[in-house]
Amino acid sequence: MQTTEIRETWTALYARLSLDDGNVGESMSIQSQKAILTRKAEELGIYNYQFYVDDGYSGTNFVEVR
Predict the structure, then answer these.
(1) How many domains does the chain have?
(2) Its domain of life (predicted)?
């Protein structure tokens, strides 16, 4: 008897802080990016997704996080 393994595929959606927002709560740019990413993913038929958010880090203040 042969069994078939079914794997569930997930997509990573990544948002990063904009310098325009500062550091108060979840920034507006993060909220906007999440809305845009969600809309695009669903347009492409992608419904299994997980957000990864760097709210507080930008390209200018990046410090390697381990």
Answers:
(1) 1
(2) Bacteria
